[in-house]
Please model this.
Amino acid sequence: MSKRRERSGETVISVTSAQPGRSEDLDTRIVRYAAMMGLRVACFVLAVFTPSPWRWLFVVGAVFLPYFAVVLANVAKTATQDSGTPYVAPQRPALDVAPGPVITVDPDPEPVQQTDTEK
Model:
């Protein structure tokens, strides 16, 4: 049993771009599917009580509405994220070439051979 209370009238501030919870998404899908099936039942009832040209329109609606209801019920709600302004790095000053002497290093005339001390 949950002790969490829903407070009415409070504004909830979202600080994330995360998608809504799975249970919330599932609830909206169920409501959407139930509404489409209610429309299908209405099409069946109207197909029985309406004259011929309208009857065929309601029969077609009653036949094809389940396909659209399933497709629309399976569409998951995704969070839309506002496109922010991209970060533009400031210009960095280039290093100046300082005039001065260049130090050269003489290569080692005799390389020292290292011997393995762990034998």
Remarks:
- Residues 48 and 86 are 60 Å apart (CA to CA).
- The longest helix spans residues 22-49.
- The mean pLDDT is 78.
- The radius of gyration is 36 Å.
